[in-house]
Design brief:
This protein is an alpha+beta fold and 131 residues long. It has a single domain, classed as Alpha-Beta Complex (Aspartate Aminotransferase, domain 1), CATH 3.90.1150.200. The chain is built from 3 helices and 5 strands.
């Protein structure tokens, strides 16, 4: 990834990260990315902090970090979101962020995840209007 980091659009860099991983983490990242785009067709893909995929709409929705044993989706304003399905399972002690750690073999509740993405977009939009 080092050579391509300075080249390409954020979407191309995310494509390259998924391809580079070439395992369950890449498949998981690709799957949640597709759900994010389905939930919000106007989502903006970004590449920040030296290699972290970021999805935004009127502010950051979530990031998609990959680690050896899990894919972490960190919602920037997750503590302000309703999570009736209990998707958030990490970073629960903070006042702002919440995260979903997905480990190999785990599947995400697509309907609940889509609702969470839409809620994050709505929250960002409401805060943007309030400025």
């Amino acid at each position: 990834m080092k050579k391509t980091e300075a080249e390409g659009s954020p979407s191309q860099l995310i494509d390259a990260r998924i391809e580079e991983l070439n395992d369950w983490r890449g498949e998981t990242l690709a799957g949640v990315r597709a759900l994010i785009k389905q939930a919000d067709p106007e989502v903006v893909e970004e590449w920040k902090w030296r290699g972290v995929p970021v999805w935004s709409h009127a502010g950051i929705i979530c990031t998609g970090e990959t680690y050896r044993n899990y894919v972490k989706l960190t919602f920037a304003k997750g503590a302000s979101l309703e999570d009736p399905s209990g998707l958030f399972n990490a970073s629960l002690e903070g006042n702002t962020r919440r995260a979903i750690d997905i480990r190999e073999g785990e599947e995400i509740n697509e309907e609940a995840f889509t609702a969470l993405i839409r809620a994050a977009v709505a929250l960002n939009a409401s805060r943007a209007r309030g400025r």
